[in-house]
Design brief:
Blueprint (H helix, E strand, L loop, with lengths): L6 H8 L3 H9 L7 H20 L1 H66 L5 H20 L2 H28 L1
Length: 176
């Protein structure tokens, strides 16, 4: 009852069990060792001294100063995050735009290759036919790499980066 901490915390401080602390404090059926009693007395005297001398105000001021420093650090971190994620969103958007362009280019090339394959279907130009066949396989793979699923994943990354940037800016303003 004399300290603003629980009996459990006091027991930890003294290095005794919680039940031992309870028995020594409540009914005196158990006693703390001389060393433990001295440690408890020293703590009690320091606590009462702090109450009388105003040291609590200094501790509060120190805590407040540390808290302000932590908030400033957090604000700076949030501002840095906001810039980082905004830049990341722009970079990913550029990548998405390039991916969409490559996809459209691939569709046009596939159409061209298929038209050429139709033209060579009865022809004796075996080398050209193999080259076109290879081009068809390569462009089909590229179309899968730049297709709707790949673009959807990239759009999701862009949305997440924008959301993190916005949330970081909002939190930094709230902490000011």
């Amino acid at each position: 009852g004399d300290f603003p901490v629980s009996n459990r915390q006091l027991a930890m401080y003294l290095g005794v069990s919680q039940s031992m602390m309870h028995m020594s404090e409540r009914d005196g059926s158990r006693s703390l060792t001389t060393e433990q009693s001295a440690k408890l007395t020293e703590l009690m005297m320091a606590y009462r001294s702090a109450q009388k001398t105003g040291k609590a105000q200094k501790a509060l001021f120190d805590t407040s100063t540390r808290y302000e420093k932590d908030i400033k650090l957090m604000i700076n971190r949030l501002k840095t995050d906001a810039v980082f994620f905004s830049q990341k969103a722009r970079m990913l958007q550029k990548k998405l735009d390039e991916m969409s362009g490559k996809h459209n280019e691939g569709l046009h090339w596939l159409s061209t290759v298929e038209t050429m394959l139709e033209n060579y279907s009865g022809s004796k130009r075996e080398g050209s036919y193999k080259w076109l066949d290879l081009q068809q396989a390569l462009v089909t793979k590229r179309l899968l790499d730049t297709g709707i699923v790949a673009r959807a994943k990239l759009k999701m990354e862009i949305a997440l980066a924008k959301a993190r940037a916005a949330e970081s800016r909002l939190l930094s303003r709230e902490l000011k």
